[in-house]
Amino acid sequence: MTIYLPQLTDDPQFFPNVEKALQEPDGLLAIGGDLSPQRIFNAYRNGIFPWFSAGEPLLWWSPSERATIIAGEVHVSKSMKRFINKNHMSITVNHCFSSVISACAMPRATQAETWISEQMIDAYIELHRMGFAHSIEVWHEKKLVGGLYGVCVGQTFCGESMFSQMDNSSKIAFIALNQHFQQAGGKIIDCQMQTGHLKSLGVQTSCRDSFIQNLMVTKDEAIKTTCWDQQQIKIQLTK
């Protein structure tokens, strides 16, 4: 069966309506274009993200189901609370974005290659320099052991990837992001695809229409200007 995909134009503002995304493979919307900061940021503002392997053409996606969590509603299990209290890790914001995305790009034990190519790394580092992409870092004994990065669109944070080089360090980064973003006035954290790892933290799935409606409400709303300043943050634990 032949699959027709719209080819993106030179206009970084142009994307097809997400309702035109394919059912199989789920969410595939368009092909081509480039990874300019303007195009990537505009994609996120419309509920679209790039995802492709090295050597493939640029592919743009908006799946029929979206994994999201309301900022401030992260689930911290009793065992996780004990782990956090026992292991005194420090958490920072935007201290070493390039190191975080490079660590996220390293192949995992369950996969032979990564979708975060050098082209993607360069594009998101430029987004970071422009103030759109941000990182959370987790440190243990002054060594970077975990973190995540993503793109902030108003009161929605679009998470892209996370990494862990020590037990639970990526979970700590996610919990810290969730609390910090909520305290700054953030509303939604978009995790794109559901996983067991994310589900254990309280991430839920909703239909694309619901996600897009929430995105349209939040994408032009401001958060505290100090949210993404370089700083150290702490996880707040309730008994």
Molecular structure report:
This protein has helices at residues 37-45, 78-86, 97-104, 118-129, 169-183, 196-199, 208-218, and strands at 28-31, 49-50, 59-61, 65-70, 90-93, 133-140, 143-153, 156-164, 188-192, 204-207, 231-233. With 239 residues, the protein is α+β, with helices and mostly antiparallel strands. Helix 5 (169-183) links the parallel strand 8 (156-164) and strand 9 (188-192). The longest helix is centred in the last third of the chain and has 15 residues, at 169-183. The radius of gyration is 17 Å and the shape is globular. It starts with 27 loop residues before the first strand and ends in a 6-residue tail after the last strand. 39% of the residues are buried.
Report the CATH architecture of the largest domain.
3-Layer(aba) Sandwich
Unreliable spans are: none
Q: Considering the protein shown, what is the CATH homologous superfamily of the largest domain?
A: Leucyl/phenylalanyl-tRNA-protein transferase, C-terminal domain
- Distance between the first and last residues' Cα: 56 Å
**Number of helical elements:** 7
Topology as a string of helices (H) and strands (E): EHEEEHEHHEEEHEHEHE
Rg, please?
A: 17 Å
Tell me the name of the CATH class of the largest domain: Alpha Beta
Question: What's the pLDDT, averaged over the residues?
Answer: 94
User: Mind describing the biggest β-sheet?
Assistant: 8 strands, mixed
> Going across the major beta sheet, what is the strand order?
10-4-9-8-7-6-5-11
Number of domains: 2
Helix content: 25-40%
What is the number of strand segments? 11
In the CATH hierarchy, the third-tier topology of the largest domain is known as Aminopeptidase
What is the strand content?
15-25%
Characterize the overall form: globular
Structural class: alpha+beta
Family: Belongs to the L/F-transferase family.
GO molecular function, one term: transferase activity
Main location: cytoplasm
Enzyme class: transferase
